[in-house]
AB hydrolase-1 domain-containing protein (Paralvinella palmiformis), 286 residues
Amino acid sequence: MGNVRGNTYSRKHQHYSPDDDQFWAWSWDQMVSYDIPAMIHYVLNKTKQESLFYVGHSQGTLIAFAAFSANPEIAKRVKLFFAMGPVSTVGYIESPIKLLAYLTPEINDLFHILGIREFLPSDELIKFLGSSFCEAFTRFICADVIFVIAGYDPKQLNQTRLPVYIAHAPAGTSVQNIVHFAQMVRSGHFQRFNYGCPELNKEHYGQPTPPTYNLTKMQVPVYLYHAENDWLADPKDVQLLIKKLSNLKGSYKIPEWDHLDFIWGLNAAEQVYHPVINIMKNFIGG
C-alpha cells in the first residue's frame, strides 16, 4: 500500500526534520515527480515483476493521472489503473473546503508569518467549515474535519468503527499542498503549483504561468469508479476527465455514494473491490 510524504506514517527525511521549513516545501507535484516513481520501483524490485496494477483513491488518483501522463517510463510499468473517486480538475467541487480557495493568499501569508508549514486542521477551522454544513450531522461526525470536507453517508458507515477511522484520518499534509488544491479550485485547471508571480514560475518552469498536466497523453488503461454524491470528485469534473482519457476501459457511477464510501462503505467490496479483482484476474488469465 502506497504512502505519500508528510502524513503520520511518512515523516522521515535524509536531511530535514518535521520542525524544518524545508521538510514541508512541497505539494502534490513532488508526489508526482518523486513519490509515485519511488513506490512503483520499490514494489517491482521487491516482487521481481516488470509491471503492476495501480489502485488509487482521491489524491492517489490525482497524482497517478499526473505521473502517468508526464512520465512515460513509469506509465509503461502499469498494467491497469483503477481510479476510485477520481480527481483531476476540481472546478466544480462541492466540499466546503472550496471556501478556503478564495482565502488562500491570506491563509498562506498568515501561516508563513506564524512559521506553520504543516496543515493540521484546528477546532476553529472545523467550526468555520462545518457551521453551514453540519445541521444534519451528529456532533461526533462534525468533530472530524475529514467528514466536513469529504461528506458523510450514514447508510454506508459502520458507526462502531468511527473511533478507528478518526484516529487515522486526516493524517496531515503540507500547507503548500492545501494551497495547491485551492489554486486548482479557483483556476479549474489540472496544473502545477503556482508560485505566485511570473518571476518565480519562470524560475521553476521556464514560463510565467504553471504548466498543466496533459491527460490526453496518458496511455495507461484506466477504469473509473465514481460516486453520485461525491463532494470532492464532482460528477461534472469526472465528465471532463472522461473526455480526456484516450484509453478508458470502463466508467462506473455508483448511485448515492460519496467520496469516503470507496474506503469505508459497507458494500464497497460488493460494489468495487470484487469487480476490480475480477478484472485483474481476467487480465492475467486467472
User: Anything to note?
Assistant: The first strand starts at residue 52 and ends at 57. Residues 197 and 208 are 7 Å apart (CA to CA).
